[in-house]
Design a protein that fits this description.
Elements lengths: L21 H22 L2 E11 L4 E11 L5 E4 L1 H16 L3 E10 L6 E8 L2 E9 L23 E5 L2 E7 L8 E7 L3 E8 L10 E6 L14 E3 L2 E10 L10 E9 L7 H19 L4 H32 L1
Antiparallel strand pairs: 1-2, 1-4, 2-3, 4-5, 5-6, 7-8, 8-9, 9-10, 10-11, 11-13, 12-13, 13-14
Helix pairs in contact: 1-2
């Protein structure tokens, strides 16, 4: 079956999820193969039960599981139900690609002597992040049948945004260690909006502003590559800043949007520009009204301050050299 195209009409019996493109899928498949190879090398010989759980950007849940027996002598060999293993491998690949997944976990239970061990990973931003391993004492043969602990998945709210191109739905991710939140878009626009607390344009040392960027664009920090926002198959980049010292209803409550252009550096058409502006502002406003916004501000300040100080030092040095001349 051929891959869906960006302008292909959606079928009524098929879920409407963003298509990331062949290159992103291929890269995610390579990471999945490498992750499984490293995982089974670390686990070693034995019987391992893999359990996968995820929530997608459309709010639906996905589950997959497989039992894999690994032997290491005389040679490495994996034995598993091919359909079960193919399903869990496809699910992990989709989560590593990331454009359709809000949150995913992979939990492995190993029948290890003398005690079984449970290990877990969060799949986020294209990588597996380890959770604390749990060792359970065996209580006879019945211990093998105990349900394994799986981290609860919290359903994220869906934000409906009315735009000239149609309704756009945005689902926020969990905030990361830098205070950033990714909004996964479906509907009339697809891709990712990256939102973070940032320094005020007027007062660089005050983190009383919010930057919303299409994809991973940021003036300060280096970020993983994320899907750019697409409208009718055309990808765009750009950003806007919400200045919290002023009302969102006045022009000076916003800076931008800046450089709404496609990947060929062509300006966005009028309708696309209005759609992207509405999406950026809606995501920035949602971020600024989060109950944990003060904590996100602090995390962003701690992360960005070293770069801001370097920038300030470079500016002062340049000014001093210019004055000396």
């Amino acid at each position: 079956m051929t891959n869906p195209q960006p302008d292909q009409p959606a079928r009524a019996d098929r879920r409407s999820l963003p298509y990331p493109g062949d290159e992103a899928i291929t890269a995610a498949r390579r990471r999945a193969h490498r992750a499984f190879a490293q995982l089974f090398t670390a686990l070693g010989a034995g019987r391992h039960r893999l359990h996968y759980a995820a929530v997608d950007v459309d709010g639906r849940y996905r589950l997959a599981s497989a039992t894999v027996t690994v032997t290491t002598a005389p040679a490495w060999h994996l034995d598993a139900n091919p359909d079960e293993f193919a399903a869990i491998k496809a699910a992990v690949t989709a989560s590593l690609e990331g454009s359709c997944t809000v949150l995913a976990t992979l939990v492995v239970q190993t029948d290890q002597e003398p005690d079984p061990v449970v290990c877990g990973w969060r799949i986020e931003r294209g990588w597996l992040h380890g959770m604390k391993a749990t060792a359970r004492p065996r209580r006879g043969r019945a211990a093998r049948q105990l349900p394994i602990p799986v981290r609860p998945v919290r359903r994220q709210p869906v934000i409906a945004i009315a735009t000239p191109s149609g309704t756009v739905r945005a689902v926020p991710s969990e905030a990361d260690a830098t205070g950033s939140v990714r909004y996964s878009l479906t509907g009339a626009a697809r891709g990712t909006v990256h939102v973070t607390a940032t320094s005020s344009p007027a007062r660089w040392d005050q983190f009383d502003a919010v930057r919303a960027s299409l994809g991973s664009a940021s003036a300060v920090r280096e970020l993983p590559v994320e899907p750019l926002v697409r409208i009718r198959g055309r990808a765009y980049q750009g950003s806007t800043v919400r200045v919290l010292a002023h009302s969102a209803d006045v022009p000076w409550g916003w800076q931008g949007p800046v450089s709404l252009v496609d990947t060929d550096d062509r300006p966005a058409p009028e309708q696309a520009s209005q759609t992207l502006t509405a999406v950026l502002r809606a995501c920035a406003s949602n971020y600024a009204t989060r109950s944990d916004f003060a904590r996100l501000q602090l995390a962003a300040r701690r992360h960005d301050t070293p770069q801001l100080l370097k920038w300030l030092d470079a500016m002062i040095s340049y000014a001093e050299r210019a004055q000396a001349r």
